[in-house]
């Protein structure tokens, strides 16, 4: 038997958590355990709940129940409020009849409709990206011009404090607007949205994640965040925006606007919708970075759980259309129609082959950057080495040497970023959970960011000469001589995208090492503090900017130690800025394949494909040794039942009997309407899937499994009064079709909204025609990895456990599988809680 740290012997299946449901609630109130029962009125305890003994005694468990908890989300808990999407088609009689009615031309039209939807997804995603880029460019340009003129006016006469106040007020105003619309109107629009989309594609139904309102708030919020000068980027939210566009277009209607265009009705089911959301996420990546292939690989690596060849082609098609649309309209905006040289929101600029060549002996240096990122500097006789940290604890070792070896970059610096952001997110969840406090924190971060940026510029003496080919959009002279500009202002007094491009392509000598060192440390902590605020923002560009800064610093210091007669390619800091940017982003988000292709496509040069791949692999390996990626951390903190690619390695000793939930509520093939209404109305259970069985004659045991029917199907049947007595009477009603179920998707009415009279409660309902007659089943002795593989590979919502006589003994859902994970003490089980 595997070592289980804690066993919870039940799970819930509700779209919305019900009162009295669950394990100990986080507010300290206890909740009674529920049970699945048969509809005959008697409770059948089928199978055993668990064969694993609890390590804690009962009195200790009860004391935990009565003790209040402050944290509503925790990586040690699994939330009951999340329900699974159903990727498996219900092959009932209605489905088979519809399939028989469709001709070969009908199937071809459906396939053409899928391609049409993907084209529309690409076009609209590209248009949204174009809108965001134009608005940000104009508003940010106006803000920086006003501040620049104010600083230049007060530099000689004194009164730069007024310029600081103006900068703080402008940043705070934009950020406050962006934070208010997120905190008070649509909180799900906060952040980049990538963790939520990743969960959705994994099969978790995240409430409100693909609503039209979410898209509007996301677009407006990211504009305010970037213009407000926060350490954020607008590229990450484009992935979420593309996913929302895909979810809306593919349904042919808007439930928010209550408009049905009567198109694409066949796609109104989870199976089709998830495929289109994958295409939308890829189109978002493509529009953000101008990387259509990278977008496809992003959906494959980070998002979609289910893949096939035709889906790959459609997603690639949507990505290409998205890039083309953005390119086309941006060329018109820049008065260069037909110039497709700016394919994405972020333009890294072209890396010419002559200036970006590298040699074999540089590859170990790139790998070191991915793992460590050394920086040598004289520090008297004291050196500080960051050797190791595990979890939140940092171990610092001091040694007396002539130089300091400071190694928190790439994988280590990314892991440090994730650890700090993890504890900061815990503090936010615990203490900053009210919308007004969330807005106040966002405004505070905006004010601090502006103040710190102004302070760095004010005290910087790094003055560089202005050249004809200078890349600075808003150069600040400040205290520099005529014909010179403040180099620190180039990094902080600009949008993050332009700062990244400047670090990549500015000629050698454009930045002082001290300037880069101060900027790296400061921007690192600002970005760490900013990610997780109640604003729409991404972490891609801040990560690239941090990595580009310390990568360029690495190149400068490496060149300073290189003899003057050595090969000059070592002296090019731009390529080290590119490698550092890739290492930093890979160390934070732990992407490998897709990020390699995105970086190659964004730079327009395949020369650095191998070094970037090696750097990202090294950063992921080193970072994973300490802590998970940033997106996985936030998924765990939200207590989402996320299923990884494989079951825990040491879980083969667990069987379906020990994992399943039981007893199970089952229905007969012909069931009484009153019984169905009572089961669906029971708020203490709120199940979503019910096995259909043939009852035995004595009525004491369940019959053999005949099929599976969903709550949503039963609600539609009750709404249309599909009763046996009405079918036999002269009041012949229209026969129900699959269209009736698709019209109710995805917001099925609650059972409380359906009126059933007392006479109708005595009627009978025949479920034979509507149930899925061939649900997936496993035996009690099936190992957990096999159950896990079947459940995840097929995208199931319910998996029925049967005995040797094909009788129902339990039910396996997502939460039953997601609660097992490898911990410090071997195989552990998460607690289920209502959060």
From TrEMBL:
A GO CC annotation given for this chain: lysosomal membrane
Disordered as annotated region, ranges: 1-27
Entry-linked CDD domains: CBS_pair_voltage-gated_CLC_euk_bac, ClC_6_like
Segments crossing the lipid bilayer: 115-136, 164-185, 215-232, 276-299, 311-333, 404-424, 436-459, 511-532, 539-561
Coiled-coil annotated residue ranges, if any: none
Annotated keywords: CBS domain, Chloride, Ion transport, Membrane, Repeat, Transmembrane, Transmembrane helix, Transport
Listed name of the protein: Chloride channel protein
Organism: Paramormyrops kingsleyae
């Amino acid at each position: 038997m595997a070592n289980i740290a804690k066993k919870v012997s039940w799970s819930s299946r509700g779209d919305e958590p019900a009162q009295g449901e669950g394990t100990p609630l986080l507010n300290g109130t206890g909740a009674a355990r529920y049970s699945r029962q048969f509809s005959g009125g008697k409770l059948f305890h089928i199978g055993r709940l668990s064969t694993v003994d609890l390590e804690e005694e009962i009195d200790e468990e009860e004391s935990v129940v009565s003790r209040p908890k402050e944290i509503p989300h925790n990586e040690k808990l699994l939330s009951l409020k999340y329900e699974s999407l159903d990727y498996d088609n219900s092959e009932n009689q209605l489905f088979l009849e519809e399939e028989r009615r469709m001709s070969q031309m009908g199937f071809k039209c459906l396939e053409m409709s899928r391609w049409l939807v993907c084209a529309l997804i690409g076009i609209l995603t590209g248009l949204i990206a174009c809108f965001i880029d134009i608005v940000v460019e104009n508003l940010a340009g106006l803000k920086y011009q006003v501040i620049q003129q104010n600083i230049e006016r007060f530099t000689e006469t004194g009164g730069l404090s007024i310029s600081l106040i103006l900068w703080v007020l402008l940043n705070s105003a934009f950020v406050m607007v962006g934070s208010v619309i997120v905190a008070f109107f649509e909180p799900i629009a906060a952040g980049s949205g990538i963790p939520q989309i990743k969960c959705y594609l994994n099969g978790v139904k995240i409430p409100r994640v693909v609503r039209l309102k979410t898209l509007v708030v996301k677009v407006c919020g990211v504009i305010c965040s970037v213009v407000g000068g926060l350490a954020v980027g607008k590229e990450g939210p484009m992935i979420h925006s593309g996913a929302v566009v895909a979810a809306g277009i593919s349904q042919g209607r808007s439930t928010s606007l209550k408009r049905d265009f009567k198109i694409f009705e066949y796609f109104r089911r989870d199976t089709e919708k998830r495929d289109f959301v994958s295409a939308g996420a890829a189109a978002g990546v493509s529009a953000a970075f101008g990387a259509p292939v990278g977008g496809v690989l992003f959906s494959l690596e980070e998002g979609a759980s289910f893949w096939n060849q035709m889906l790959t082609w459609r997603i690639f098609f949507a990505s290409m259309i998205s890039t083309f649309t953005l390119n086309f309209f941006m060329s018109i905006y820049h008065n260069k129609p037909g110039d497709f040289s700016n394919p994405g929101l972020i333009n890294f600029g072209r890396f010419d082959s002559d200036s970006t060549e590298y040699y074999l002996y540089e590859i170990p240096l790139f790998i070191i950057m991915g793992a460590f990122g050394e920086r040598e500097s004289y520090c008297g006789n004291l050196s500080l080495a960051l050797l190791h940290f595990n979890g939140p604890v940092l171990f610092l070792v001091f040694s007396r040497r002539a130089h300091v070896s400071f190694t928190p970059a790439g994988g280590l610096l990314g892991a440090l970023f994730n650890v700090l952001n993890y504890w900061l997110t815990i503090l936010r969840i615990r203490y900053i959970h009210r919308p007004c406090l969330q807005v106040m924190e966002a405004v505070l971060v905006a004010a601090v960011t502006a103040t710190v940026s102004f302070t760095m510029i004010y005290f910087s003496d790094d003055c560089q000469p202005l050249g004809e080919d200078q890349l600075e959009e808003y150069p600040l002279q400040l205290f520099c001589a005529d014909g010179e500009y403040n180099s620190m202002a180039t990094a902080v007094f600009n949008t993050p995208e332009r700062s990244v491009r400047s670090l990549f392509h500015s000629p050698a000598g454009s930045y002082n090492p001290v300037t880069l060192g101060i900027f790296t440390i400061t921007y690192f902590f600002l970005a760490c503090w900013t990610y997780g605020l109640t604003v729409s923002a991404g972490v891609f560009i801040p990560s690239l900017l941090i990595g580009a800064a310390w990568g360029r610093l690495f190149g400068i210091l490496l060149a300073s130690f290189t003899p003057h007669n050595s090969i000059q390619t070592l002296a090019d800091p731009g390529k080290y800025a590119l490698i550092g940017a890739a290492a930093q982003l890979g160390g934070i988000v732990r992407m490998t394949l897709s990020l390699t292709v995105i970086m190659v496509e964004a730079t327009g040069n395949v020369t650095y494909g191998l070094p970037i791949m090696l750097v990202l692999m090294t950063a992921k390996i080193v970072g994973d040794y300490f802590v998970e990626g940033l997106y996985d951390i936030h998924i765990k903190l939200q207590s989402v039942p996320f299923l990884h690619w494989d079951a825990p390695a040491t879980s083969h000793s667990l069987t379906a009997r020990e994992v399943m939930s039981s007893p199970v509520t089952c229905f007969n093939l012909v069931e009484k309407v009153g019984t169905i209404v009572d089961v669906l109305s029971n708020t203490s259970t709120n199940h979503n899937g019910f096995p259909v069985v043939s009852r035995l004659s004595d009525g004491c045991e369940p019959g053999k499994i005949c099929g599976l029917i969903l709550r949503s199907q039963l609600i539609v049947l009750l709404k249309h009064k599909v009763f046996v007595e009405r079918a036999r009477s002269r009041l012949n009603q229209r026969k129900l079709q699959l269209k009736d179920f698709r019209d109710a998707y995805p917001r099925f009415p609650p059972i409380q909204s359906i009126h059933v009279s007392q006479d109708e409660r005595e009627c009978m309902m025949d479920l034979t025609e509507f149930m899925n007659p061939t649900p997936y089943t496993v035996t009690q002795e099936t190992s957990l990895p096999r159950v896990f593989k079947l459940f995840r590979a097929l995208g199931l919502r319910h998996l029925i456990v049967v005995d040797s006589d094909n009788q129902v003994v339990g039910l396996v859902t997502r939460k039953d599988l997601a609660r097992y994970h490898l911990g410090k003490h071997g195989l552990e089980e998460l607690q289920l809680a209502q959060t």
